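ok trying again, last paste got cut off:
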Amino acid sequence: MKTKLPDFLIVGAAKAGTTSLYHYLKEHPEIFLPTIKEPKFITSHIVEYPFKGPGDELVEENIIKKFPEYTSLFSGSDNAAVIGEASADNLYYYEKSVDIIKTYLGNPRILIILRNPIERAYSAYVHLIRDTREPLCFMDALAREESRKNANWEFIWFYKDVGLYYKQVKAYLESFDQVKIYLFDDLKEDALAVVQDICRFLGVDDTFVPASISEQFNVSGIPKNKILQKFLLQDNIPRRILKPVANFLVPDIEKRKRIVNKLQKKNLEKKPIPLEAKEYLKDFFRDDILLLQDLINRDLSHWLK
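nice, full thing came through this time. structure:
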């Protein structure tokens, strides 16, 4: 039997709700998404290894680099109406990822979700603070971006560059027949409406309501308790000891993920973006936002207010 491959991709943007969309859609009985949320097979042909940023080696461990391994991710998809995956770096690496997607997958349906790039940059920064990887204040981290790129750090560190959406989105619109674009604002306002619209786009039952629809996943924030945060996120001896017990008590892997997600969210607190950084990023992103809003025919003026 010929191995099935994805006929839709969630290509990004990172820190714009792709993890939440992945979890919502994964519950749908007609949709197959692999257990690994971001295999990053497409961009494994683009980036250089090893990554050099703090903690990047753990990211690299989960990347699928060989085609047979990639195809095996979808081995349980025989009864699914549609198959997808959600590697959020595909959007950022558009200059090469588009052609690689076409080579391996042909003309899949494309899902893009975009977040105010100022908020997205700060969310990525706080994400790395959350994971105890980012040592600098936000303004200093923004100033170091170019040197980090030159030193081959993983793309999550490129707070500014990842948010320059115009050329990224334009490339996908010009290269694929079916592209759907949503805003993070849409997801926050009515996640179910977004999911049901995606279901119509994919041609599956649009009346399905995910059990997790009221939850947000992969939320960024400042840890209140760093010890608890490390326990929840990193491989450690206590986690290894408790894992068999947790697996026995909660056999469903998705339920276990939701429990960990809730615990993690309770341990995080939100802090506003520093005003200096906000004003700096408004100026940095202004022209790109104005080009993007014309491209996708959405009013994005609120991103600059």
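cool. The mean pLDDT is 90. The first strand starts at residue 8 and ends at 12.
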